[in-house]
């Protein structure tokens, strides 16, 4: 590999003319690639041009499907469903109301804060049909985060459900629109069910949605995606996935609408005349319920993070031989990929930042490419381009690490109300023929390998992925530093034995507050959960006296002390009952702790537990005790002592019910 690289380097140097060697030699300006290698990196790998609809917005493409397939089922939620015609008509009512009553026009931002339901899809589609762009607000997010998004977007209209707005401080200018059931309220009754006829054609350059992602400055940043970018993405997915992406598609949607991946889950099937089956928020976190939904609805398409797929397999999911599985949001481990391939028809590995509209690289994994690194990135979508550049934004040779830049039709417009960051991250494309073409700096470090694939190496900053969610450690540090009792802090991500990132916060405590260090972790968690989602809250807090420093006086993160999880427990309490003893063994396996190190009053999440491990714990409890237990019960009763009491109570009820059935059978048999 070294010889190959040296040969290519010397070939590039051989192209240097004698005149370039006159005077002081500027090494950085010498060509590192031959003409052929440069052409391969710039042109051959980026030959992705394809036609896509440029005369219709997303909602207009849906309307065409509603005409072609009016009686096909469009969306299903629990025991409710809507046909294409019904969904189109209900969304039209919302659209006419927004446009005529609230003057919603192209680029008007409209908030939507509803639970997963048919109303969610109707509301999203209605906003688009009115010409507006939706701003998704997940009701499960902390109030402070929702408040920031509302303030940042300056929305004047909010589609609300069941009084969710009562948690928020809304200005008088924000108009609330209630969408409580599938028939809607009296507000929409008198509005037409027909498609709106616009005097002027809505441009594809108008916004489709604004989604907020974690920000390094401490506050989420809004990514603006235009109609044309999203339509191109959907058409590109249709082209890439081929016959799998058609009117027979039945997709199980598991992602919050505030996460860009939900865009494919909702609009992908509706783009081709397929069916969306919405999993409820309780179903999403329970692999046994997801497995049931996959079977009962005969699902043939699903996308999830590697963590999501792993939770299904850990729950002894039998697989589905006609299922097309997409994995994205994190690196796909080889072992997981091979397990998934045995359980589904096809497996696709997906990569892409929110700023490039969901995915930009989508590659099918099959038996022929499992020998190498399955996590490698490949399969550029139509009208996307990818370049590996150095710090001077020059193309680097094959095998050399550089930053990945993405270009093409589906780049975001930029960051809402943040022109400086937009200018920093979205730069002019020096390789494109179009003068207005741009590149997005992903911050991902990659190297081009011999078969044209990209090997992910790391990040240029502190951004990480946890269970598919993009997280800036700086945002967590910003929120934690504002907590009472914190003088300064650093948050790092440590990988556990299964390769998952766990968040660890190192804190220098302010001991003048009168708060003991024993109390601080729980107080920190409570404060953080008011501002950031649960997946961003550190599972472990380590207190230190001073920061280790490098020779030049900077904090040396590599020298931060190791932590002993036993220190995060109160006075040790041994297991007293058989149920407690069994739970100790389960915790010991999942948390990789010795059994005699786990106290009965220890908190599962303070010992390194997180939502994914909670799913595994519930699966093991169900098998071991042969009873039904919900994941939320682990969060509500996070100690062995509390959990054991719940299990014993359920077992007692189950025994009583069993005895009652025996009595009934005996009684019936006596006549």
UniProtKB/TrEMBL annotation:
State its Enzyme Commission number(s). 5.1.1.11
Q: Which UniProt keywords apply?
A: Isomerase, Phosphopantetheine, Phosphoprotein
- Residues annotated as domain Carrier: 574-651
Requisite cofactors: pantetheine 4'-phosphate
> What InterPro entries does UniProt report for this protein, alphabetically?
AA_adenyl_dom, ACP-like_sf, AMP-bd_C, AMP-bd_C_sf, AMP-binding_CS, AMP-dep_synth/lig_dom, PKS_PP-bd, PP-bd_ACP
Q: What class of enzyme is it?
A: isomerase
* Segments traversing the membrane: none
This entry carries the following GO cellular component terms, namely: cytoplasm
Q: Name one GO biological process term.
A: secondary metabolite biosynthetic process
GO MF terms held by the record: phenylalanine racemase (ATP-hydrolyzing) activity; phosphopantetheine binding
Domain of life, source organism: Bacteria
The UniProt entry's sequence similarity note says:
Belongs to the ATP-dependent AMP-binding enzyme family.
* Stated name of the protein: Amino acid adenylation domain protein
Give the organism the record lists: Colwellia psychrerythraea (Vibrio psychroerythus)
